[in-house]
Amino acid sequence: MDSCLFNVKISKTRNISVRFQFLIYKVRMKKTNQTLFALLLTVAFSAGVSAADFPKGPELSITPGKLCDQPTATRYPEKIPYCTRDVTYDTKEILMKEYDQKFDYHIMTMARTDFKIDHLIPLCAGGSNDITNLWPQHKSVYEITDPLEPAICAKMAQGRLKQKDAVSLVIDAKTHLEKVPAILQQVNRM
Fold this sequence. Notes:
- This protein is of the alpha+beta class.
- It folds into 2 domains: about 45 residues, no CATH class; about 140 residues, no CATH class.
- The strands form 3 sheets. The protein has a 3-stranded antiparallel sheet, with no helix packed on it. The chain has a two-stranded antiparallel ribbon with strand order 4-5.
- β4 and β5 form a beta hairpin.
């Protein structure tokens, strides 16, 4: 059995892989006792997700991060402003569409359950609910970055990490995923 793999763009927003399998069957015809070769073509589609379908980190041109400017409380020895989580469904939709349109991602064509709307600067570190602090984070990314946020905020609560340093570490981690393990180690040693 021979097969060939082709990547085909079937629409502006969807790439699929198409595998053509050429199967040659030997068929014996009863009456003539001759051999007939039949060609059977099968096509298998796989709608695989590529890394270019979603951001690996926030696009800093539209998600530069923003600190809480409408606090509901203050936290930690440093008394940083704290905003309660408040991101509407409409804001989430607008944000995902904006990332798709401006950066040619395909977030809106993917399963919504594969994404969360992440606060670049976490709320626990004094981040805002403003759209400039939000980005659509794929589960393959948040599985890497999520352990960092509670560790950073715990150190802030202990007075071992200042907000400006926490923000710097979080943004570095979310824009350079390969650094997350080292940054987490650094935070845990504080």
